[in-house]
Each structure stands twice: as C-alpha cells, then as structure tokens.
Amino acid sequence: MPGQPMAAPKCWKTTGREQTVTMTSAPVKPDVPPDVQPHVPYRDASCRLCPRLAAFLDDARARHPGWHNAPVNGFGPVDAPLAIVGLAPGMRGANRTGRPFTGDFAGDLLFKMLDEFGLSRGTYQSEADDGVELTGLRIINSVRCVPPQNKPTGAEINTCRQFLVQDLAAMTRLKAIITLGRIGHVSCLKALNLREKDYPFGHNAGHVLPNGVRLVASYHCSRYNTQTGRLTEDMFRDVFRKATAV
C-alpha cells in the first residue's frame, strides 16, 4: 500500500546520493488518514486556497456526490527513486477516483508503462481500490484540484506549488523525475528553484539538475496527444527507458 516503504526495482542503480531541496513552509492539515506518509503534504476538501477551484469542486459535489471531488494527493512511496510530476486531476479520472491518473485514458497509458517497467504491481483496473501498488515511484500533480476545462490559471499553479515543493523535498532518495507536459515541467523546475531557460522542455529531453537528479520531459499522456499522434506508446516508452537508466 502507499505509505509503506518498498524496494526500488532492479533497473535502478543505488548510489547512496541523497537529494537536497529547499522547502517552503505551508500549512498541512494535522488530522490526516493513517496511511499518509510523514513529511508529505496532505490536502482535503476543506482547502479553499484557490477560490475558483474550490467553487468548481463545490459544484462537482452537488452533481456527483459519490465522487472524490477533493484535492488529489500524491500516490506512491516517499522513498522512491523516481517521481512523475503531472498537471492536475482529470474530472472523470482522478477527481472521481481520488488517485492520480486513475480512471481516464491518461491513466490507462501511464499504468501500462509502469507495469511494463516494473514500477508497479497488481492489475490496474481504473479504480483507486484495484489494489495496484507503486514500487520505486511516486506520482504528484502540480495542481491538486481539478480545474475547469483542465486548465488551471497561473495563480492556481503558483498557489499549489508549495505542496509540490514539500512532496519533492520529502523524496530524499530521488534519482530521476519525469515531467508530463510543459506546465508540469515548468512548475517542477520552479519548485526546485530552477529556470526553464536552463532546462528547456521538449519530448524526451533529458537534463541533469545541480543536485544530480536526472529530469526527463515528456508530452502529456492525454487522449488528445495520443489520438493526434503527438505522443505514441513507443515515444512514451523511450521516456521511461531514459528515466530508469540512471
């Protein structure tokens, strides 16, 4: 289960090097569920930091009372060597199920790659209770609440970045990061006090960060990108090959 340390897959080389990331303080709700890992930010439905997103979730709760309809927190062990940084929950995906990239097409493709590269175990069935566990990987979104039309504003991205900072800082064994889409890429760099001009976005572009962590950028695994051919399975597979080769 998420929250329990898991061994890194065999494709990872152990160097013993740890990452140091400057953290910024942010309020973290104290009464968190028992499976939430120490030092990892947790947000629940009481978060109102972004008024537009909070109002959008209020409306979603009224229309779909059985859905998660709340901030979607990270998924996977905090001591993992690999992080995936995405954009935000999808309305009928993570916002419905409460688990990142679970319940929509983007998750179908992502979890297929995770299984193929030995980064998960269990059978992905598009639901948060399908029993899938991540091994050596943690998934985090740049924005934790579903935005209207899948488009968070710059202010919302900036507001939520404090939690991305804390999530990355908690991953002291981090060796590589995969960023999905340019917004996720830029927000991840800013969370690490880095600039895009020094580490430009491009599909399968690899960078070594000052702390030794490898960053690999990818087009987002959205249905639109795959249907238009902007991202193919082989292109996505190449990203994971590069990220797990450290």
Our Rg estimate from Cα atoms comes to: 17 Å
Largest sheet features: 5 strands, mixed
Shape: globular
Low-confidence stretches: 1-34
What structural class should be given to the helix and strand makeup? alpha/beta
Mean pLDDT: 86
The CATH architecture designation is 3-Layer(aba) Sandwich
Superfamily (CATH H level) name: Uracil-DNA glycosylase-like domain
Describe the strand arrangement of the main beta sheet, using strand numbers. 4-1-5-7-6
As a percent range, the share of helical residues equals 25-40%
Q: Determine the CATH topology.
A: Uracil-DNA Glycosylase, subunit E
Strand fraction equals: 5-15%
Number of separate domains: 1
One letter per element, helices H and strands E, the order comes to HEHHEEEHEHEEHH
Strands, total number = 7
Q: Note the total helix count.
A: 7
Ends apart, CA distance between termini: 25 Å
CATH class membership: Alpha Beta
Q: Topology, pairings included?
A:
Elements: H1 51-63, E1 82-86, H2 94-97, H3 105-116, E2 120-121, E3 133-134, E4 137-141, H4 154-170, E5 176-180, H5 181-191, E6 206-208, E7 214-218, H6 223-227, H7 233-243
Parallel strand pairs: 1-4, 1-5, 5-7
Antiparallel strand pairs: 2-3, 6-7
Helix pairs in contact: 4-5
Describe this structure in words.
- With about 250 residues, the protein is of the alpha/beta class.
- The chain has a single domain, classed as Uracil-DNA glycosylase-like domain (Uracil-DNA Glycosylase, subunit E, 3-Layer(aba) Sandwich), CATH 3.40.470.10.
- Helix content is about 30%, strand content about 10%.
- The protein contains seven helices and seven strands, in the order αβααβββαβαββαα.
- A five-stranded mixed beta sheet has the order 4-1-5-7-6, sandwiched between helices.
- β6 and β7 form a beta hairpin.
- α4 packs across α5.
- The relative contact order is 0.18.
- The N terminus is likely disordered.
